[in-house]
Design a protein that fits this description.
This protein has six helices and two strands. By secondary structure, it is mainly alpha-helical. The radius of gyration is 17 Å and the shape is globular. This is Transposase. Pfam families: DDE_Tnp_IS240.
Length: 142
Amino acid sequence: MPAHKDYPQILWMLIEQRDEPAARAFFEKAIGSSGIPDKVTMDKSGANKAGIDTINLHLTLLFILDGVFTQVAVRQIKYLNNMVEQDHRGIKTITKYTLGFKSFQSAEATIAGIELHRMLKKGQMKNTGKTPAWKQFCQLAA
């Protein structure tokens, strides 16, 4: 997830466990929707580093088979979490009045809707044109 103000947030994923298989699944989903990045910036999480190392191992095996070398550079920043938390402050403000979620699925659906609305409001969705954020949100919900 980019934490630079000039780059859009590409993808987020709410997971129950934070381990290597979950991180790998996140990166595979991100690569499937956005392509292989040149560089990934992350916090000092060991699970995320292990996930991207597994992706790089798979890319190395593809290089041996196909001859096209591609690796994802990793940049780890200790305090990246502070910038991510600032970005998610709006979501936390909205969800603190929900008194918790009864299931993981309801939390995932609610947070996905809130995040979609925030991305529309920030203009991070492609081909938005001059359509206001509320109208785009209603069109996606229909």
